[in-house]
Amino acid sequence: TSGMTFLAVLSLYLFGGEVLNGFSFALVIGIIIGCYSTLAIASPVVLWWQTYQDRRNKAAKAATA
């Protein structure tokens, strides 16, 4: 999804003319930052959350046993 959006905005930047260059450049930067956030920040947070939930569930089972 981000790749196709990036290609569309990149073509808008290259062929859109001077009026659209600033707007499309801002969109390109936003797409790049959004992809970075998804890959480098959100994935480790999800892994940490799953590990936390697993430990919490194991502790709850041990407490009831």
Describe what this molecule looks like in 3D.
It is a single chain. Helix 1 packs antiparallel against helix 2 (18-64). The chain has one domain (2-64). With 65 residues, it is mainly alpha-helical. The protein is built from 2 helices and no strands. The model has no long low-confidence stretch (mean pLDDT 92).
Average predicted confidence as pLDDT? 92
Multimerization status: single chain
Element pattern in H and E: HH
Largest sheet, strands/sense/barrel: none
Which radius of gyration do the C-alpha atoms yield? 21 Å
> What would you call the structural class?
mainly alpha
List the helices and strands and how they pair.
Blueprint: H1 2-15, H2 18-64
Structure in a nutshell:
The chain is an all-alpha fold and 65 residues long. It is built from 2 helices and no strands. It has one domain.
Task: Provide the descriptors you would attach to this structure in a database record.
94% helix, 2 helices, 0% strand, rod-shaped, mainly alpha, 65 residues
